[in-house]
Amino acid sequence: MNDVKPYMAQSYTQSLIHPTNTNAGNLLGAGGYMCSAKKRRVSGPGGSEQLLQPQFMEQNSFPQQNSASNVPYSNTQLPQEPSRNTHAGNISAGGADALTGAAFNGATLGDGSTQMGAVPASAGGALMGPNINNNNNSRKQKSGSLALLPSDVATLKMSAAQIMAACKGLGKQGLFNTNMPPPRPPSPPFPPLPKEELYPPTPSTYLEIKKDAFSVELQKWVYSHPVAVVRGLAAALKLDLGLFSTKSLVEANADHIVEVRTQYQQPSDENWDTAGKCQVWPCDSSRSYTSIAKYAQYQAQSFQESLKEEQEKAHGVYHHDTDSDSGSSANIKGVKTKKDKPSFKVIKFGTNVDLSDEVKWRLQLQELTKLPAMFRVVSANNMLSHVGHSILGMNTVQLYMKVPGSRTPGHQENNNLCSVNINIGPGDCEWFATPVEYWGAMHQLCEKHKINYLSGSWWPLLDDLYENNIPLYRFIQRPGDLVWVGPGAVHWVQAIGWCNNIAWNVGPFTAEQYHLALDRYEWNKLNAFKSIVPMIHLSWNLARNVKISEQNLFEMIKCTLLRTLKESQIILEYVESLGKQVVYQQREKNEIAHYCHICEVEVFNILFCREQENGKHQVYCLDCARKLSPSLDGFISLQQYQMSQIGEIYDAFQLHLPLVTVTGGI
Description:
Strand order of the largest sheet: 3-4-13-10-15-8-7-5-6
Strand content: 15-25%
Helix content: 25-40%
Radius of gyration: 26 Å
Low-confidence stretches: 6-154, 322-339
Oligomer: single chain
Structural class: alpha+beta
Distance between the termini: 37 Å
């Protein structure tokens, strides 16, 4: 972390790299901004994939296996080493159960709550939730670095009492800005890759025994790649994937809601406009809802119709292409002309099926506890397990029910978190991914095609990536395969066959992961896009529950706490200077993080509430509250944590240095 990562927003990154320098008071402000050409085949019809041989792997040979697309794969074996703590040095765990999901099942976060798992608390007192937005700037200024203290006033070496003393009186003077620019998409790495290196082999390994899955070598290998495929994991761990089959889902909860996306079935490396005239980036779909039982009927009917069509074709019977649900998929290979427009079969993709209910989906969720800690939904090694409440699809499991052609458009995971995806089968999925370093280039291409990178739906054209020197991983995910998407990797997926997938997010305790998550948090604010991961609330929970021994990660978290501490103190003074009373209302146990009703930025500690016509109260940030009423008339100002509580946790959060055993003599 001595060098600024090129794919992170520069202004905010610089404020995190060296937070203890003499100018840290200025750097650690309370805001912190931080139609297609000819087709080109990409290494075979399904994407060529080469198994990498990391240093920790033995050079063993295994028989090649073929996917449904006849893409060759080679396999290797992990060394047979005893499993070790997968995050030794990052988390101080108090026992063997610290990394098990069971250790967290009965634990909660909140005021006076039990600490999560066996991870000792860094301090007592109430947890905090954060806000780095309360300022007097406009929406776009809000994402800029907001130094609420003059330079050289506050550094990470100061105690909470010293920081609050340095803030004294500043709230009465108003809020201050620096000239630090807002974040911006990064330029792609320079020099650009040569054309022959734009289709790198996908990192892949094959597991044969359970011991391999729990080895620390596997964790290090997975963390070192932007995307990785772990094959044979389900068999090695004896996971019962049948629990996630359509039949089992119907038997368990037939009436459970399924979000449906209506799409057109197309080849994975093409994306035609609705008129079929040219290839485009927009990948729009309509949304509707149904039940698991009804989608199961559609999925089965789709398979039966496809089987019937294959049998008819085998006997020389062909049907004309149609755009109806029952029509066959279009044959759009070759060059298209105005007289030969492609027509596509309409398909329905069942997405975002919520499996968070521990009662309804007890057997399914219990089966996933067999996974190693690094892949588990709930684990001490997972930052998202310390949020303290559910974030659907992130620290809970979501299911996807697919027919051939179902598409998950291009995206980065929320707040650049890592993700885990397991194919239940029986069909395959095809994946496309590019490293996080190139997200700025992908953003630029989206703007070129007039698509919102964050909220739009887009399917990249491979020729455009090639022409812009953007490397592409392309590979097949077979049943039982686990795909690991590293922090910030851009990816998009299409189903080859009929299959179900399960997925969730994880947050490894690495400086890069935290940095990228906070970087996207600031970029989202600049673009009026809600960050569903409350990064400041999470940071305070980490400070309370986890001991960090990696210095860069520690300083980044501490920096976030510092900004929040300063901001709370100054906002309190500012509100009191207006002659308004701040009412203390203790945060409730398991209370979710709060977001502004207007701009949807995270609001911490000092909440500005206003009663609506329906009698309910809405939360606002200071910025939006002042726009509605400069003197805050009509608002109730609530304080959820005493400054002494915040100060105790801030002071108790220190770099944890593991004991070193000294052996030998003079």
